[in-house]
Automatic annotation (TrEMBL):
InterPro entries, per database record: Alkaline_phosphatase_core_sf, SGSH_C, Sulfatase_CS
Family assignment from sequence similarity: Belongs to the sulfatase family.
A Pfam family: SGSH_C
Domain N-sulphoglucosamine sulphohydrolase C-terminal, chain residue ranges per copy: 366-518
Keywords: Hydrolase
Organism: Reichenbachiella carrageenanivorans
Protein name: Sulfatase
Gene3D superfamilies: Alkaline Phosphatase, subunit A
Signal peptide stretch: none
Top-level taxon: Bacteria
Amino acid sequence: MNTKRNGVGLLFLILVGVGCRQETNQTHNDRPNIIFMMADDHAYQAISAYQDHLTQTPNIDRIAKEGMIFRNACVTNSVCAPSRAVVLTGKHSHINGKTDNIFPFDTAQVTFPQYLQAAGYQTAMFGKLHFGNNPKGFDEFKILPGQGAYYNPDFITKKEGNIQVEGYVTDIITDMTLNWLENERNKEEPFMLMYLHKAPHREWLPALRHIGDYTSKKIPEPTTLFDDYSGRGTAAHEAEMNILEHMNWAGDSKVYPDVMDELGIPDASGWDQLAFEKGIGRMTGEQRTAWDNVYRPINEDFKRRFPTMTTKEKMQWRYQRYMQDYLATIAAVDQNVGRVLDYLDENGLAENTLIVYTSDQGFYLGEHGWFDKRFIYEESFRTPLLMRWPQVIKPESSNQKMVQNLDFAQTLLEVAGVTAPGDMQGESLVPLLEGREEAWTRNEVYYHFYEYPSIHMVKRHYGIVSERYKLIHFYYDIDEWELYDRKMDPQELNNVFNDPAYAEVVRALKTKLEVLRKKYGDSDRLSDEYIERYMSKIKVDELL
Ligand code: SGN
Ligand code: CA
């Protein structure tokens, strides 16, 4: 089946490639360049163009100031590799097959870079892909194996095999990107570049130049830090995403294993030690000394305070530690985005290059006491999205439409003048970029999360989201529905599914949800098949 699909895909690819050149009738130089920037787990709450009380991101904000900010962008399945598969294929997870982080991507699926390459675009990818295999359709790639490492990371490369590079991952990915732009591409041809940061993914190891500044900051707490989930269902109660309960002390909060020992903090199944070694353990002697100079005193202070700390104070301490490191990793992302923007300015590329800045999903920054993502709930469902394309987008534009990561493939193909294949499931955002909002007709989006049981234990669920409402069905080992009124209850504290005042809304949304599931080809039968595949291969103990 794969071979057949592959064959058809390639034939189509060739036709599209040829078609494109005839259709657009443009010279190569006219065709815009595309830089797709993605950071891993970058919450919109931590981009000052969205809200600025947590941190400042002046360079990322430039993309919004000189282009468009999307205030209602969201994902279809809030977890890393599935989100990337949606971006590359323009298809929902149940169609592209990459439903979770665990099974490798099916490379028989045709991705949009393959179409661009066939249409004469130069293509390159640097950074995190997380597919379990190499990307297709790229003239050049240097990708991190799996999650990758912050310090002295390894890379899988197209031309040099496996390499290790000394330094800090965010800087290195940018060095590779700038080197390709400056020295490796053919400057006469248009390009599509994927610039994919590992940061700010867990376990949040900042660059040495940022640790001093951020570890002394006091970050405001979200109002729902101590949420007891009383207005929500079983899934919120059972998720393992609580900052106090489920973060590990060593890897996440940077409490040294010897300090844990001294304080009698148990290391659940050696996980803390492991997380510590995986991150901090990779540093060179010099890096480690600079690190210890900042984090040892924090540990000493913690050692003094810990015995008298209340549970609430421990939560507050861990929240500060989490945010300080998370935001510090973003400081390096922002600086490096600035380096790329400067390069475009200095080389006359800014005008004719579309820049997309986004994340593979949103993230909890202490809202509801949580870190991580996965849920269709607000902070993980929404994702940042900023685009700049001076030739087309009016500066300082703001867009409220419910756009999705599902829409990128068709958007980027249209930008390049390539006809998107008919089986892609998104909508091109080009009319929105041109300011033609009336051309946008999709008002509800579909969401489906699968990876359960797994780390963080977020139950399987699917749902429909409109600007006003969110209807969710949690299934598999439960059968629970939730409804949130996004206008009356933006923090989603009260499930009103059983409130008689919403009976009509529930009825109408359930119908629309069924229509969407049909339109996108999802069904209970498919879910059952995935569950069987997942449970037969997964050893749950190994995932935790
Ligand atoms: C790791 C993290 C999890 C995270 C997944 C998926 N634990 O397992 O917290 O949810 O990755 O993240 S860690 O201790 O190993 O960092 S994703 O972005 O790749 O989907
Ligand atoms: Ca991610």
